[in-house]
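Exercise 3.2. Students should predict the tertiary structure of the chain below and write it as structure tokens, then compare their answer with the key that follows.

Predict this chain's 3D structure.
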Amino acid sequence: MTDWQEIEGGITAPKGFKAVGITAGLKPSKAPDLALIWSETEAIASGVFTTSQVRAACVDYCRQNLQKKASARAILCNAGQANAATGEQGWQDALTCAQVLGEKLNISPDSILLASTGVIGQRIKMDAMIGAIPQLVDQLSEDGGASAAQAIITTDLVTKSIALETTIDGRPVRIGGIAKGSGMIHPNMATMLSFVTCDAAVSTQLWQQMLKRAADKSFNQITVDGDTSTNDSLIALANGQSRTPAITTMDKNGQKLEAMLTAVCQHLAKAIARDGEGATCLIEVQVQGAIDDSSANKIAKTIVGSSLVKSAIFGRDPNWGRIAAAAGRAGVQFNQDDLMIKLGDFLLMERGQPLDFDRQAASNYLKQASQGAYLKEDTVLISVSVGSGSGSGIAWGCDLSYDYVKINAEYTT
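Answer key:
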């Protein structure tokens, strides 16, 4: 049973945060394309970023800032241009964005973190960006979370937002988050783009540790297409405005805060997987019986990332052989005679041997999931056991449809 409840407000639900999203003319579609998240006070900041050797200027900028001072007041995110592989001029563009926004907000540029999403190799349209910053700041609002969530998306079909509230020492504590992502989703120590706000008081080192563990249990366990972006960023701000005592250790309050942070990240991660380009359903793979959690997570992510498994689910084919093959190539040792596979309530394999099952009913189960897109019924559950070990893991992904190829053949990224 969870010790928190879902509330309205998204990224601005925590005390002391405002946000906004506007149309700045960065996208050719004239859709919202520029977002700002603002803390009324300096907030503890932490981040998890792409491990790609080809990185956007905003990623290097944030890493450098967080190494110098693990705090920030604002996050500026543009959509339309990734500003990756843009060389020295792209780096200078990032610095200019922070400088101009800092002047408007009357804060130091190093209290601003940056994120970009869009076409790789394209610089930010600086004239449009600079011209839009006054409007962006003027429209900051405690009700601006929804517009910010809209402004950061690209090929997403829906926005992704969540806010949770719990009680710590008798006072309400809130965490809110937004995310974007639909393609190029196979993070390694990151996600596509996700921003989290929190009004708890927490130590710098502990907040970074919490975020890293939360990312490992959420964004690092999703895959849509096996591709990691040049811009993947997960940034979290905690401004202490709940006025609760500072959390400096993993006592009961620290454990509660991390559990709620993980729940926010998992909600957003599943929303990204559910919204995978061309997807018709969410796939959840649960693995039990591994030697440790790391091994179980590795098996789960290999299965959910298998193009053959994903294609079979799109074709409504309960093909246990593809699931077994993916588990076997995950790089984790187990006895194949211990392998058990279930699809929903259908037991397909036990003790390493296939079983008779109602193939048409299992196929209908997959069909029903595809018809429940964006509902709770849209999830295809694959359960796997590989032995009697204590390790368990979970991963999320989506099916692979014809539309994925169509979208990415026609859309430059």
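Discussion points: The CA atoms of residues 334 and 386 lie 6 Å apart. The chain has two domains: 5-274, 282-410.
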